[in-house]
Amino acid sequence: MAYLGESYNDPGVLAEDCVDGALSVDTTTTANTTARDTVDVVYEATDGSGNTSTTTRTVYVNTEPDPDFDYTVNGATVNLTDESRYNPTNWKWTVTNASLPTRSTRNTNYNFSENGIFEVCLEVGNEWNARFGVSKKQLCQDVEIVGVGINEIELNEIFTLYPNPTEAIVNINYSSSEIKNLNISVFNLVGKEILNQNFSNAANAATLKLDLSGNADGLYLVRIQTDKGVITKRVNLFNK
Length: 240
Fold this sequence. Notes:
Distance between the termini: 86 Å
Largest sheet: 4 strands, mixed
Number of helices: 2
Number of strands: 19
Shape: rod-shaped
Helix content: under 10%
């Protein structure tokens, strides 16, 4: 083994002949450590009668691995995929600000019990760490979890639209301590957005008002986006 960018001290080989005794050994190749590579170093010895023998040592030029990973979030589950470079052979996954176990498989997943931003870290190593006394490298990324606590069915139950049908004003009533920020958009049936409103730091129980006056009679889609998920409801507009 050789460490990238450092000089390689060839340990050489010994050759001995039953007649001539110890023989000198020559080599025509050396390990180039300026690039990651696998190099075959060939040694050759010749006795006094002209008989030649060769042997080969394979030298691996590398370093400790550089950690990298990708992730996907599906509700409360984070799927983690190792994308580290330079041949890692051991992995250590941790979540620094949550009570979750350390994992040692190449790829893994975590299930979270609360929403928030969590620091997920990957530490990787290989034989070069131990052989050359190099510390393992670690990479951390912030992962945001928003899918814990409320599902689509619960969201539909939290929000109530009335009156429906309506002549102009639509009241949106909801009650939840877990929802603070809302974006409400209204679309007609050809997909044109006719209204968009943001509501921040809303109370635990609130009634929000949407004014649909000036729009044609018909069916409209009300899209309610929260920090817990998105739902769509329908409302009929009927002008007298």
